[in-house]
Automatic annotation (TrEMBL):
Keyword set, alphabetical order: Elongation factor, Glycosyltransferase, Protein biosynthesis, Transferase
Matching InterPro entries: EarP
Keyword S-adenosyl-L-methionine applies: no
Function: Protein-arginine rhamnosyltransferase that catalyzes the transfer of a single rhamnose to elongation factor P (EF-P) on 'Lys-32', a modification required for EF-P-dependent rescue of polyproline stalled ribosomes.
Superkingdom per UniProt: Bacteria
Family assignment from sequence similarity: Belongs to the glycosyltransferase 104 family.
Source organism (scientific name): Zhongshania marina
One Pfam match: EarP
Catalytically driven reaction(s): dTDP-beta-L-rhamnose + L-arginyl-[protein] = N(omega)-(alpha-L-rhamnosyl)-L-arginyl-[protein] + dTDP + H(+)
GO molecular-function terms, A-Z: translation elongation factor activity
Protein name: Protein-arginine rhamnosyltransferase
Length: 380
C-alpha cells in the first residue's frame, strides 16, 4: 500500500516556508510514490512558486499538481482522516481535531516536526529525538543539515545531472536568458540578486559600479527591488529594461517559478540569495554565492550564520576564508567594509573550484526526502 503523507505549511512572511514544503511534497510524490497532501494557508505564495493562479488553490476543492494534492488550509477546519506520516513544518500548530484523530487511528500517525535548517553543532544531537505529547503520541524533531548525522538537504534525484547538462550547454543558457529578455555582454559577469532589503546595498552597488569589472545584475521581483530602484534614482521600473550606471547593468525580471529560479542560479557567475530555500538551491548550483540570512532580533541569527561559515569555508586559503567570512558578516550586519567589492568577489578560480567541491560533498549524503522515508520505515 502507498504511504500517505500530510504536510502542513504556515507561510509567515516570505517564500521559504512554502518553497521548502512544496519541493518536499513534490519529491515524495514523484520519487517515492507517496500519496501526499500539502495543506497551505497562503495559496497566493504557493501559486507563484508553481506558476499558477491563486484561485486554482484556494477554496474547498483540492488541486492535483505534480502528483501532490494541494489543499487550502483555512481557519474553518474540516475533519479529515490523518495520514500515515504527518509533517508539522517549522513548528506550525496542527488543528485540534486533526490531532485527536491522529491518536485514534488503529496505527497512530508518525508525527514529525520539520525544523529550520542550521549547521550549528547541537542540531545533530537533537535530530530524531522524540517528545511525548499530551495526546499520548510521540512527536519527533527532524532537522535538515549539512552532515550525515542530520536529515540532509532537499535534492531531487536528477538535480545534479540536470544542472551539469545545463551548465555545459551555452545554448541552453542563452535560450533561458532570452526567455527573460536578457542579453549579457561577453565581458560582463552575471549576478542574481534575491535578498532582503539592506542598508548596505546602495553602498555596495556604488563600489561595484566604480570597479574594473562589468557586472550584469538580474533582480527578480521581491523585497530588494525598492532598494535597487532608489539606487537607480527611479520610482518605478520596466521589466526587462536594462539600466546602466557605471560598470553595473541592472535588469528587473519577473518572480520565477522554482524550476526557472534554478536555471537562473545555474546561469549566473555569482548569486546573492536569502532565507532557506534559495540558500540551499544556490549550493546545488555549484557557484560562488552570498547568503542573506533571515534577520532575527538581538542578532540571534549570527550564531547560525557563523556555524555555516565554519563548515563552508573549510579548505579555503587563509586570505580567501577571511574575505568570505568578512563580507558575509558585514552584509548581514548591514554595514560595508572598505573593500566590500574586492572581498565579495574575491577568489576567482579558487572559489569556483571550492563551490563545486562543496556541492559534491553535500551530494554524498542522504537527501532530506530520502531521510524522511527511511525514518518512517524504521519507525514502522
Amino acid at each position: 500500500m502507498r504511504t500517505s503523507w500530510d504536510i502542513f505549511c504556515h507561510v509567515i512572511d516570505n517564500y521559504g516556508d512554502a518553497g521548502v514544503c512544496w519541493r518536499l511534497a513534490r519529491q515524495l510524490a514523484v520519487e517515492y510514490d507517496a500519496e501526499v497532501r500539502l495543506w497551505v494557508d497562503d495559496p497566493e505564495t504557493l501559486a507563484r512558486l508553481c506558476a499558477l493562479v491563486p484561485s486554482e488553490i484556494s477554496g474547498d476543492t483540492p488541486r492535483l499538481i505534480d502528483g501532490v494534492w494541494v489543499h487550502y488550509w483555512s481557519s474553518t477546519w474540516r475533519n479529515v482522516v490523518p495520514a500515515d506520516v504527518v509533517i508539522e513544518a517549522f513548528a506550525c500548530q496542527l488543528p485540534l481535531d486533526y490531532l485527536a484523530a491522529m491518536a485514534e487511528r488503529s496505527r497512530p500517525s508518525l508525527w514529525l516536526n520539520l525544523e529550520y535548517l542550521s549547521a550549528e553543532e547541537w542540531v545533530a544531537g537533537c535530530h530524531g529525538l522524540p517528545s511525548l505529547q499530551q495526546n499520548g503520541l510521540q512527536k519527533y524533531f527532524f532537522f535538515p543539515g549539512f552532515s550525515p548525522e542530520t536529515g540532509g538537504l532537499l535534492r531531487e534525484a536528477d538535480l545534479v545531472k540536470r544542472r551539469t547538462e545545463f551548465q555545459q550547454s551555452e545554448c541552453a543558457k542563452i535560450q533561458f536568458l532570452r526567455s527573460l529578455g536578457v542579453e549579457v555582454a561577453a565581458e560582463s559577469a552575471l549576478v542574481s540578486l534575491f535578498c532582503y532589503d539592506s542598508p548596505a546595498l546602495g553602498q555596495w552597488l556604488d563600489a561595484v559600479s566604480e570597479g574594473e569589472v562589468k557586472r550584469h545584475f538580474l533582480v527578480p521581483a521581491g523585497r530588494v527591488v525598492a532598494d535597487v530602484c532608489r539606487w537607480l534614482g527611479r520610482e518605478t521600473y520596466e521589466l526587462g529594461e536594462p539600466y546602466q550606471r557605471g560598470n553595473v547593468c541592472i535588469q528587473f525580471i519577473p518572480f520565477l517559478s522554482q524550476r526557472d529560479y534554478d536555471l537562473l542560479l545555474w546561469s549566473c557567475d555569482f548569486n546573492v540569495v536569502r532565507g532557506e530555500d534559495s540558500f540551499v538551491r544556490a549550493q546545488w548550483a555549484a557557484k560562488p554565492f552570498l547568503w542573506h540570512i533571515y534577520p532575527q532580533q538581538e542578532g540571534a541569527h549570527f550564531p547560525k550564520l557563523d556555524a555555516f561559515l565554519h563548515c563552508y569555508t573549510e579548505g579555503l586559503s587563509a586570505d580567501l576564508k577571511a574575505a568570505v567570512v568578512g563580507s558575509w558578516r558585514a552584509w548581514n550586519a548591514g554595514v560595508l567594509p572598505a573593500d566590500m567589492q574586492g572581498q565579495l568577489f574575491a577568489g576567482g578560480a579558487e572559489l569556483m573550484g571550492h563551490s563545486a567541491r562543496w556541492c559534491a560533498r553535500l551530494e554524498g549524503q542522504n537527501n532530506l526526502a530520502e531521510s524522511l522515508v527511511q525514518f518512517y520505515q524504521n519507525w514502522v
